[in-house]
# Entry
Amino acid sequence: MKNLGAWLIAIGSGVVLVAFLIGNTVSAEVPDLSLSSLTGSMLTRYQEVANLPKLQLQTMIFQSGIALFLAGAIFAGCGAILEALTPSQPLDATTPLPSMAPSELPASAAEEAAPP
# Structure
């Protein structure tokens, strides 16, 4: 689970970087109003304008990358917690736990275990 989280973080980061590289403008012919009034004819020039479908695609890819990154962070965190909670050696069901004499217990536990 921890490894899956690390992979999702890496993939999500890559998707976010790709989203920033996607172009979201197109070249369009727009009227040049500053010169058309002088000449009386309609002059045009080319200008980069925002294309809404490309902006929407860029936003959706960016949000997908963020979602993958967050899912990876959650999986990595849960994997680290599970790794910390699992015992290093599993206990055998047939082996009894060793009992400790009151003298072997720590000081605070020995006081609680001593008969009154």
Observations:
- The first helix runs from residue 2 to 21.
- The CA atoms of residues 24 and 55 lie 5 Å apart.
